[in-house]
Predict the structure of NAD(P) transhydrogenase subunit beta.
Amino acid sequence: MTAFEIIQWFVYLFASVLFVRGLHYMNSPKTAVKGNHVSILGMVIAVIMAFVGFFYDTEGKRFTADFNVTALIVVVACILVGAIVGVRLATKTKSTDFPQLVSLFNTVGGGAAALVALNDIMNTTDDEVSLVLLITAGLGVIIGSVTFSGSLVAAGKLQRILSGKPAHIPGKTFLTLLNIAAIIASFVLLCAQPDQRSLWAIVALALSFIYGLLFVFPIGGADMPVVISVLNACTGTAVAMSGLALGNVALIVAGALVGASGMTLSVLMAKAMNRKLSAVLLGGFGGDDAAAAAGDGPQGTMKETSADDVAMQLAYAQKVIFVPGFGLAQAQAQRDLADLGAMLEKKGIEVEYAIHPVAGRMPGHMNVLLAEANVPYEELVDRDDINPQFPQANVALVVGANDVTNPAARRPGTPVSGMPILDVDKAQHVVVIKRGRGTGYAGIQNELYFQDNTQMLFGDAKKELEEIIAALKELDA
């Protein structure tokens, strides 16, 4: 190795250390922002080093001005376009749309990793090609292609461009297994016939693209958080494989971190929703039976209430549990909920926030929102710890949470069957703030809304919370 190559290796290693450190800081909401900044610094250093390497002639072992000017212009243009688009997306995207944004980032990351690996396979000479390169680059092509198409479909479902209901694909199991067998065969042939590596790499790419579609289309919106976690892990794994093929330590470490953390999160999310991760990887779970049952709904009527009545119930309660959900995030009402909680605490009322792992569109969504509103972290109680407390709660105030409170999950035959829920229905009185009478993301009505102890307050969460706060102030006047 030349002096420059040694320096480059250590710079990439330093960037990798920053990635690891940044991930460590994200263990706590208090240091998460610092973790983002540290990780960004590592990525900037890695990109700059890669750009400097563009001017280094590895064969001549020297820096040179003899390089492809067109390629340089394309690289610089792509960096500028990517930076502008990335900054705009980050600043303009609402927090409620972050899951779609993550899916789009997975699409770009998976596609980029697949193309880098494909380029490495096709442009490596016969003298330089090795089995290790074909294995790592081949896996990069396969995993990256699955991530690209699967994430694209997931983003479409989350944005409601595509239906959030599980898609019925005739012969899905047979087609999925056949597709997996064909991918494995193309990968084996890629490694066994290096002289035909370009052909088999393209075949593997196309088959993997199809598998990504078979993987995500049959999955309904209620299970999409697990899918996002799995695809995120796939993105990291594809990047790591491309890094192994290129011998780039920064890509290897960054990809391994994303892959390992994403898979760990996937296991935890699957457990939280009582789903088998193996079923997810085989392309769809929840079953066609669940999709067929989506049309069945509870019978009865919803009882409506007013902000004044809700304020009266809260004022005379001893214990209140807030249940935040996606509707809270959509209305950007987290600060209003925090203000309401603070008012009740000043009156000597015990207040806690019930946090379900998938109450938003992505893991930790509610934790981040409420931390932003300065809600004490000790008041955020996980599902397993809060569920036994609902029977003692005088009022459970549900703000925009839907599928995670649906008692239908306790019986088979529904799209949410088996998913652990918050036992809101066991509270003495339940008040649900909801924008309208529509169904949740799973596509079914919530049985909670039709129970005798439940009252509905229809309207924008922020507006209704403001009216409740105003009514409480009048009671104290």
